[in-house]
């Protein structure tokens, strides 16, 4: 399915754009991701990403940054950082 061939848009003004998505594409998205979909827009890359809304945000975000914390030393890093607060 070539997305650029199916989308139609009409500019409302320079800051706002309406995009009409054909029903077959909406049905396809619902089939793949369910009916609760998050639309995430990245300003830097100018990309819109559709993702399935997680059942639990807590579970979806659990472990985020785990590798980073391992690299800096985890709880030992936090302890050292907090000791500097007293200085």
TrEMBL record:
Q: Which domain of life is it from?
A: Bacteria
Protein name from the UniProt record: SpoVT-AbrB domain-containing protein
According to its UniProt entry, this protein's organism is: Desulfosporosinus hippei DSM 8344
């Amino acid at each position: 399915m070539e997305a650029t061939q199916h989308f139609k848009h009409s500019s409302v003004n320079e800051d706002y754009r309406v995009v009409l998505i054909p029903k077959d594409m909406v049905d396809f998205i619902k089939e793949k991701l369910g009916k609760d979909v998050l639309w995430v827009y990245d300003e830097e890359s100018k990309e819109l990403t559709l993702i399935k809304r997680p059942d639990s945000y807590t579970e979806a975000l659990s472990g985020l940054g785990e590798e980073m914390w391992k690299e800096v030393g985890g709880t030992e890093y936090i302890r050292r950082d907090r000791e500097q607060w007293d200085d």
